Amino acid sequence: MLNATNLTLHYGGSQILHGIDIAAHPGQVTCVMGNNGVGKTSLLNLLAGRHPRSGGEIEFDGRKLDRLTAQAMARMGVGYVPQGRAIFPMLTVRENLETGFACLPRSERRISDEIFDSFPVLAEMADRRGGDLSGGQQQQLAIARALITRPRLLLLDEPTEGIQPNIIAQIGRVIAALRDRGDMAIILVEQFFDFAWELGDGFLVLERGRAIMQGPKSDLRREDLHARLAGHATAAE
Amino acid sequence: MSALLEVSGVSVSFDGFRAINNLSFNIGAAELRAVIGPNGAGKTTFMDIVTGKTRPDEGDVRWGEYSRSLLKMNEAQIARAGIGRKFQRPTVFEDQSVADNMTMALRANRNPFSVLGWRPSPSSDQRVAELAAEVGLAGQVNRKAGELSHGQKQWLEIGMLLAQEPRLLLVDEPAAGMTLAEREQTTTLLRRLAETRAVVVVEHDMDFVRRLNCKVTVLHQGSVLAEGSLDHVTRNPQVIEVYLGR
Amino acid sequence: MTRKPFILRNPSVLVMLAALAVFTVAVTLMSQAYGSGAVPTSMVKVLGKTLCLALAAVAMDLVWGYIGILSLGQMAFFALGGYMIGQWLMYARTEAIVATSLAQAPIPPTPLELQEATASQIFGVVGSSDLPMVWSFAHSLPLQLLLVVAVPGLLALLFGWLAFRSRVNGVYLSILTQAMTLALALWLFQNDSGFRGNNGLSGLQNIPGLDGVSQARLSIWFLWASAAALGLGYVLIAWLVGGKFGSVIRAIRDDETRVRFLGYPVEGFKLVVFTLAAMITAVAGALYYPQAGIINPAELAPIASIYLAVWVAIGGRGRLYGAVIGAVAVSLLSSWFTGGRAPDLALPGYVVKWVDWWQVALGLSFVLVTLFAPRGIAGFFDLFTRRRESGS
Amino acid sequence: MKGIDLGLDALSFASIYFLAAIGLAVTFGVMRVINMAHGEFIMMGAYTGYVVQTLIPDRTLSLIVALPAAFAVTFAAGVALERLVIRHLAKRPLETLLATFGVSIALQQIAKNVFGTQARPLTAPEWLEGAITFNDVISISTIRVAIFVLALLFLGLFLFIMKRTRLGLEVRAVTQNPGMAASMGINPDRIAMLSFGLGSGIAGIAGVAIGLFAKVTSELGQDYIVQSFMTVVVGGVGNIWGTLAGAGLIGALSKIIESLNPSNTLAAQTFMILFIIIFIQFRPRGIIPQKGRAAEA
User: What element of type H or E holds A45?
Assistant: First the structure.
């Protein structure tokens, strides 16, 4: 589905990513992990076409991509759930969902029942403004909004950040269901270790813009991965 | 020891979202403090309130020996009172030389007419040279700030802060975008600075905070979640829950 | 480090002063009054006015190019300066004429009668014969000269204080300055404003007390005065922006929030710069209108202030010589093209008459300059100097 | 009685301001683009009306043709301006102001060259020429009623487009968060172009309406541009109700000041502008300010 190699990225004078390789396959969740400020979000921004890369190759559906724009990526089938959710605050929930119609042919522009089945709260709140929703509701809306575009690759940036546990569990079930459908590749940026370990099929750990650990779940041990992540924070214990 | 800065019961909301929620925070006259917390914990808003950029909805912020309220002062007055702020992204005046940038920051009367009458003197030139040397820009004083590397700009900004001779330094993510060597230099400098004044560092790179080796305040959802040594707070189960590993 | 004197640190100031001196001497030597007569008096007046416009442009550059306020109200200050000096010019001259005609009367007029007769002479055109309050000082040259800087200065101070303290910024501030100009223009357009409504003040080219001096000579004197004013204004502003003050105001232009965190009272700096620029602009106006001969409220049309901004943009903002080059080049070209002297351009099927099409070309050239040469004409000098530096 | 008459006058004034400003509410209010040539788009609309009238003698029919024609002409001009100039000056608002000013003086001069300096007539159909008389004091000319109705119609149209159409949804999404809108597959450039065209097209229609009672000259737009910007700024940028409130305030105010000193409309306008300058001191973000953190940036 997606295969990117040797990605580099600069913001102004500083280099954020140093030669990252990442792949995503249908029916699998690839987790990108690491502490704050290591470049996870930048990597996702790059893949979503929101920031130009300074080097590296990206292949999507077997096609090499040169310059990416966010709207071209969206139309090609990349759904994006940003960190902080980026709900359109003055649009209603329904309108927020409808923004994704831009990716669909006119005849298919409707909100499927599936969406409301997965996130019943959105059906209840359909006519409320996005900005009035709680954080957890906004997160569900952000995921639903990305699903409206019928993506084949879904990019999720810290969907559990600042969300209460029961909603996290629900989000986890939705992601698992999407994965199990088998036709969608998912890249999940996550700091919540248990959540990521549960869902992930492959892992990539970043530190200061470099991959320090990478591989499928079968090749990794939970303890090693956890130690690698928490190592810096808890080494003194 | 009485506190240099005393933040008590401060709250502020944007669009019904509570960015800061009943926050209280003290810092002494010569102290190094790290403030950590996940995104959206209110770290930047906290700095905005102390420096006068954002007015809190309730609470009080008091400063100095006479406990003056900072809430009645504007940004410039607060800066003149002795609070310096380093921004996350280096903001130096790219169009002007390193020396000009530093000269502007030098402690001197700030009113327009005094500035008009200000003339460079041997002592001001020397002060600029000293500061440039201190932040590793000795050979660069006549270069335009815009030509400096990202790390050098961060250094220049720190130099400008030093030129202001503040009693409290607020530093927002100094390590972002720095190389390993630059980080080490920065930690050393911050620790040295904290010997004579208060320094508050907002950072979420744990490694960096560890090297600062100081008291840590953990913010979460706009209030203080834990405070103490790094080891102490990293053992706090709530801190682990919201920030560290989960 | 040893510090060189101000002038030596700023070679562009020296070049500008030298160019101005050469220009003034050359025009004088070719004038009808003092030289060969190659340059007709009307042309001398155009050149003198152009120097005044250049001074206004330099002040505009201070406000826009250095501190970042795109003021669309500069012409209000320019015209106010003109009105203030115009009051004395018109009053004193009318009084002299009235006095001569009344001198033949059997009973010599009292001062009050003289004043009344003068007033009805001036204000008859708007159906009034009383001298309005605002003309109280019109009899006195020193007082009116003081008002030339005081009135626009106070207006700028008041307006700036209101606008800056509420932190109105960017385009909002521009629109607000434009509204200020429009309000002033509308007020002056009224017949009972005390400034003769849309008739404005006229006959300003005749200087009271200098009846024996020919216009040819007067025009040269005004050229000298304008050149001196431009030179002085240029040096003053160059000195201002050369030191730490300049450093601070450029910093305010680039990132005013950051300057606040350095402890500088940003509003105070803006106010000082805005007011000072208003006063310099007013002096330029006070020298301009006696050469133009007439001033009326149409001079304050919003469009006029925008022209000033455009000259600065074309010349190269943030560089004082850019402002001078822009003002001189565009205003001289404009008067050449619109004066009917430029040859028509014959296109296949259509003859472009420059009188009609110059404005179109000018308008489009603003667009091209903003799009493709944001640094203006002065930007091209950079190319030269850079090439020279890299070549050596 | 006098009060009602004054109220009607104020209402028709407000309608005119609203009509002139509503296009700006799209380009300036929503897209945050300063278009100094907006007044010239109004002028182009008025001249389009005049040209149509010279081709179609029947005044009613010509008016019916002129409205869409004016929209088409100015829509095209707006799209061209956005694509050729404004797009390249994104994030440089002060330079946009200057460049569009250049366009403005070029358009004015072109109009002068084509149509001459004399005012051209744009005559209203007979059914718009009379007045509706209630009694001795209160009467209102039909054309003013028509302009009021037109203003209402525009308000409705604007609300319909923004709230009920796909274009409106995309415009709102792009204004609130262009980056996220792009990630939903919306093309922000295309939206900017279309909404700029829409705002300009509305200016064209307003031009036809204004031409019916004002003289059509190349300087027609100049008379409205500053007031139109003030209307939008006073009302609060980014909100059509704000624009309506701004137009209402300015309309009412100018009539009230005028009625205090009926001999002098110029002084009234001066005082109105002074009032607005002072008003902005106290409500720098207008009558209906935009809320939220985004508005502070």
Answer: helix A40-47
Q: Is residue C169 part of a domain?
A: yes
pLDDT exceeding 90 applies to what percent of chain A? 56
Q: Do B111 and C243 touch (CB under 8 A)?
A: no
Predicted confidence at residue A234, as pLDDT, reads 38
Coil, helix or strand for D139? Answer: strand
Has residue C292 been placed in a domain?
Answer: yes
Q: How far is B211 from chain A (nearest CA, A)?
A: 11
* Cα separations in angstroms, B216 against A36, A41, B183: 17, 26, 19
B108-111 long-range contacts, CB within 8 A, separation 24+: B110/B76, B110/B80, B110/C263, B110/C264, B110/C265, B111/C265, B111/C268
- The DSSP letter of residue A172 is H
CB contact under 8 A, A232 and B150: no
- Give the residue extent of every domain in chain D: 2-222
Q: What is the pLDDT of residues C113-139, one digit of tens each?
A: 888 889 998 998 888 888 888 899 999
How much is the average pLDDT of C277-287? 98
| DSSP symbol at C315 | H
Q: Where are the domains of chain B?
A: 1-82+169-246, 92-165
CA A2 to CA A151: how far, in whole Å?
13
Structure confidence at residue C26 as a pLDDT band (50, 70, 90)? very high
* Per-residue pLDDT tens digits for D227-246: 888 888 888 877 888 889 98
Positive or negative torsion for Cα B170, B175, B178, B181: positive
Q: Does A138 touch chain D (CB under 8 A)?
A: no
Torsion sign, CA atoms B200, B203, B205, B206? positive
In a domain, A106, yes or no: no
Question: Which residues of B44-150 form beta strands (DSSP E)?
Answer: 58-63, 68-69, 83-86
pLDDT digits (tens, 9 = 90+) for C192-208: 888 998 899 999 999 99
Q: How far is C356 from chain D (nearest CA, A)?
A: 6
Would an 8 Å CB–CB cutoff place B152 in contact with chain C? no
Domain extent for C258:
6-391
pLDDT level of residue C271 (50, 70, 90 thresholds) = very high
DSSP C363: H
- Give the pLDDT confidence of A108-118 residue by residue, as tens digits: 898 888 899 99
Nearest Cα residue to C176 out of D254, D234, D37, D220 = D234
In terms of CA atoms, which chain D residue is nearest residue A46?
A: D183
| Neighbours, chain A (3 or more CB pairs < 8 A) | B, D
Question: Could you give the number of structural domains in chain C?
Answer: 1
C1 belongs to a structural domain: no
CA distance A225 to chain D (A): 32
Distance CA D284, CA D140 (A): 35
Q: How do residues B194-233 score in pLDDT, each as one tens digit?
A: 898 999 998 877 778 888 889 999 888 888 988 999 888 8
Domain assignment of residue C255, yes or no:
yes
What is B1-82+169-246's CATH topology? Rossmann fold (3.40.50)
pLDDT score of A184 more than 90: yes
C197 Cβ contact partners less than 8 Å away, ≥ 6 residues apart = C126, C188, C189, C190, C191, C297
CA B244, CA C174: separation in Å to the nearest integer? 50
Taking the CA of residue D291 and the nearest CA in chain B, the distance in Å comes to 8
Residue numbers of the domain that contains A44: 2-86+152-236
Residues 6 or more apart whose CB falls under 8 angstroms from that of C311 comprise C53, C57, C60, C323, C326, C327, C330, C331
* CATH code of the domain covering residue A15: 3.40.50.300
Residue C374 phi/psi, 5-degree rounding, is -60, -15
Spatial neighbors of C49 by CB under 8 A, at least 6 apart, are C226, C288, C291, C292
For the record, the structure tokens of D150 come out as 């037109």
The answer to whether the CB atoms of C172 and D97 lie below 8 A apart is no
Q: Do A232 and B230 touch (CB under 8 A)?
A: no
